[in-house]
Description:
Elements: H1 2-9, H2 16-22, H3 29-42, H4 49-54, H5 57-72, H6 82-100, H7 104-115, H8 121-136, H9 141-160
Helix pairs in contact: 1-3, 2-8, 3-9, 5-6, 5-9, 6-7, 7-8, 7-9, 8-9
Amino acid sequence: AHLAVALAFVQETDAVLPLLYAMNKVQSPIARRQILHSVGALLGISEEYYPLLADDQYARDEAIERILKEMGRAEGVPVTQKFRHVRFGYLTQRALESYTESAYSDAIQALVKLVGRNPSIELARVISWAEGQSKLGHFGSEEFLLVLFCVRPFLLDKFAS
């Protein structure tokens, strides 16, 4: 975990995937959160991420629900993009329902469909890791939070264009 913090400090973005896969060998919940936080720092995730990561399960679940619902709203969407937003809202709702049922693999798949083609290299790597780990059952709310915070800015940019 200390290595993860050091790599984040020096902005070693090539360390993202090795750090994520190294979590399979880490038993300590605190060390796992430190690794997730370091990966988030390497990826430039918003400052809102760490407090939610450090929070208890219930608060984290509420935050994930709030974020997915906010992402799925149609407020301020131009009329020309309403159809596109209906699909967006459906997939965010599907991600939320799957997440609340602890069906993380299905929740990740809904996010993957939202992202579609041409994500950044870093986002593609995180998604690939998440798909594999969620299918193996090595995935929980903390890992999902990381993926959500990686996907959210991409989707907001994609939808705005």
